[in-house]
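Hey team,

Filing this mostly as a record. A colleague (T.K.) asked me to run one chain through the structure pipeline before their review meeting, and I want the input and output archived in the tracker in case anyone asks later how it was produced. No errors, nothing strange. Just documentation.

Input sequence:
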Amino acid sequence: MTSLLEGAKKLVTRGTDIGSRLEGLDAALGAARGRLDDRLLDDATQVLDRATGRLRLSAQHTVVAIAGATGSGKSSTFNALTGLELSAVGVRRPTTSWASACVWGAEGAEELLDWLEIPPRHRTTRDSLLDNSREDSALEGVVLLDLPDHDSTEVSHHLEVDRLVQLADLLVWVLDPQKYADAAIHDRYLAPMAGHHEVMLVVLNHIDTVPEDRRQSMVDDVRRLLDADGLHGVPVVPLSAKHGFGIPELRGEIARRVAAKKTTRTRLEADVRATALRLEQASGDARTRAVPAERVAALESALADAAGVPTVVSAVERSTRMRAGRATGWPVVSWFSRLKPDPLKRLHLDLGAEGDRLTGRARTSVPEATQVQRARVDTEVRALADDVSAGLAPPWTEAVRRASLAHLPDLGDRLDRTLGEADLGVAKLPVWAGAVRLLQWLLLLSAVGGFGWLAALAVMGYLQVPEPSTPKVAGLPVPTLMLLGGVLLGVLLALLSRALVAMTARRRAAAADRRLRGAVHEVAAELVVAPVEAELQAYTTVRNGLAKALK
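Output structure:
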C-alpha cells in the first residue's frame, strides 16, 4: 500500500493535498486494525485502494456516470449526449448487466476502461474526423457511462450500479417526473452520498410531459428533496432527451466541470472524507491521555506487596544482622547463631553457587500472594486502564482494558523470577565486619594464650616447680591482662559492633528494597504499562491520521 501511495502522490497535480489525505487514512487504518470493526475497516480499505488505483490512471479523462431508474430516460439522455444510438431504450432495452461507455479522446483511456471493467464490446470512441464538432471538442476527455437500471429486478444490475457509482468521477442522476420522490433512489443513493454534492448533477427528464406552468414548481420540489438529503447546491437540470430540450445545458455543465480538471480529485477527496468521518464516528475524537504517574505508582506498590517484596526486604535485614553479627560477635558464643537458618536461604534467595541446584523447581519460596493482594493488583490494573481510557469511544476503551489484562496471568511467575534473579547485595560482608572478625579472633587467641599461661603457672605452683618470672604491666601480670583483656575487649567490641550491624542491615535492606521495586517497575512497565501505552499510541495515530484525511 505504501508504494501505491507514493506512486499516487507523484501523479497528483500541484496544489492539492489528496496524497496527504490518503497517507493519513492509510496510517489510521493500519493503527485501527484489530481495534475497530473489521467490516468498517475493510470498507475503508476498499476506498483507499480505489482512490490510489484511480490516481495511477489517466488524469486527462473524467468518468461521468449516468444513473437512473427504469423508464427515467437515462439511456435516452446518454444517446442525446453522445449523438449516437448506443443504448437501447424503452422496451428494446437489453437485459445486460454491463454498462456502456462512450469516450471522447481515446489516448490513455484503455487502461482506465479496463480498471472500470467495461467489456470492449461495450466501448465506443468518438475520435473520428466526423466527430470534431464544437460540442465534441468541449467533451474531450469524457468517459460517459450508461449504467444499468438501479431498480432492476436483476441482482447483477444492482451490483454493477453500486460498483460503478463508487468509481465514477461525476454522477448524473436522471429522475422521472412521476417517480422523482421514490425512496429507492433517495434512501439508497442520494442521501448516503450527501458528502459528494460537488460531484453530482440531477436531471429531471421528460419535462416535456409536465405542463409548462408546473415545470418550475416541480424543479423546486426536486430541489427541496435534495436539500432534505443533504445535497445542497447540486444543480437540477430539467430536460427532455426525446426532444433535445435541456441537453445543451447538461452538456455544457459536464464540459465545464471536465475542463476544470478538478472533478476526479474532488470525487476522491469526497470519498476519503466520507470514509474518514465514518471512522472518526466509530473511533471518537477525544484527546489522548497519558498514563498517570500516581496510577503506575499504586500499581507497582500492589505488585510489590503481592510479590512479597516486604518479606524479602525484611529477610535481607535479618540475614544481614545475623551474618554481620556472627562475624563481629564474640567467637565463643557467636557460633550458636549458625544453628539458626538464614532467612534468605529459607526463601531460596542469595544462595550463591547453590542457585544452580534449583533448576527444575520454584526459583523462590516467597509466600504466594493472598487473595486480598491479588484482588488489589487486579483493581489497580483496571483502575489504570479506566483512568487512561476515560472519554474514549467503546472500542478503544475495550482495547485498552484488554491490553492491560492480557499479561495479568503471567505477572506472578514473572515477579517471582525477577525476585529470584535480583542482586540483593548481601553476599559479601562489609570490610569493617571482616576487620572486626579478625580482631575478635586475635582477642580470643590472646585470652586463650593468657588462660594457658596462667594454667601453666598454676600447675607449676601445684607441683612446686620453680616459676619463671612473670612480666607485669601497670602492676598486673601479663597473662592475666591477656585473659581478661581478651575476654572483656572481645565482649565490648561485640556490643559496640551491634550499632554498626544494625545500621548496615538497615542500609542493605533499603538498597534491596530499591532494587526489588526497580525490578517490579520494569515488570509493570513491560506487562501492563507498555501494552496500554501501545493502545494509546495506536489511538493517537488513528486520531492524527483521520485529522490529516479530513483537513
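Quick notes for T.K.: Residues 90 and 229 are 29 Å apart (CA to CA). The radius of gyration is 45 Å.
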